[in-house]
Amino acid sequence: MCSRKFVCYLTIALLLMGIFLEEVEARRKILRGRKTITRRYYRGTAIPAWAIVLLTGIGMLLLGGGLYALLQKFVVDAADTGEGINSYTPALQLTS
């Protein structure tokens, strides 16, 4: 079941990457006699640039929030091992 989920997520990720890729330029050379004709084909992206920026920003916010929650749970909360026990002791003041 895990491999099926992985393949599904990988397919979705590759599909999104294909949508977000920049414009594709293809060149084809056609030989006719002694002349070489170069044709160029341009294909625009599937969604407009403002939508790419919006989705990227929302994705970054969600990723940052998820990372914050994970670090809060596993790093910050895990550091509170003992309550009331301070690991800091002030330096001893010597008077001369």
TrEMBL record:
UniProt entry keywords in alphabetical sequence: Membrane, Signal, Transmembrane, Transmembrane helix
Signal peptide, first to last residue: 1-26
Keyword Membrane: yes
Transmembrane segment boundaries: 50-71
Superkingdom of origin: Eukaryota
Name this protein carries in UniProt: Uncharacterized protein
Gene source species: Atta cephalotes
